[in-house]
Amino acid sequence: ARTALERSQKLEAVGKLTGGVAHDFNNILHIISANVQLMMRNEESSRKRLLNIMDAVERGKKLTAQLLAFARRQPLHPSVVNPAQLIDRMDSLLHRAAGDAIEIRFELPATPWNTLVDPNQLENVLLNLVINARDAMNNQGHITIAIENVTIAPDSELGETGVKPNDYVKIAVTDTGSGMPPEVMERAFEPFFTTKPEGKGTGLGLSMAHGFVKQSGGHIRLASRPDEGTTVSIYLPRAQQETPDPLYIPTPH
Ligand code: ADP
Fold this sequence. Notes:
histidine kinase; alpha+beta; two-stranded antiparallel ribbon; binds adenosine-5'-diphosphate; globular
């Protein structure tokens, strides 16, 4: 049974969450209404106003989609996924997200293990990690996406940091960006915690990644040094099945 403290902590979290969304959404609606009012006054500048409106609508859509994904946390549709295949399929999407100035390097084992996860969710998580990396990078440097087959033995060092002994597919996204000061690192997984300028960050990317990884039976770890960069590592349990399931039909991005 939940204790009173747990209940009140949960209520507090929900309150914070609702407040954050209401605030962001109010700003978006404000942009829309201000632009419509200006259009009604002055037809000349309609095109620019419409672009502002569309931009705000896109932000609103992104916010509600992330919120729904966060609130739902269910259902996942796991299948046996080969991570190298999935990343290969995301190639152009990832490059578009990173932008032309940032190089993406891939490090893959000869025979990566399979993992049992929801491929659409894994795709969302990886895209979010690459966007976070880009946002920390000021349009220079490189992002490395490394896949590794990892066995955590019961007496291994990683076991001590809370990664349960098991076979995992590890996917690590490393950037050469700004890194995180300790006080940001401590709060990075909190829903709606963001250091990004208003309208840019929702503060849901890492908390969603955390939720997805936990639900998939895995672990997520952050390593970061200010001015050097950040590595986000996710450990997904190895699937026993040798042949991956056919890849899903990609969602349009
Ligand atoms: P958002 O990206 O919308 O801010 P996230 O939950 O994905 O939300 O990230 C929360 C915060 O963690 C970011 O605002 C940023 O301060 C920090 N952060 C996340 N990824 C990185 C990274 N790769 N490098 C530096 N800081 C990061």
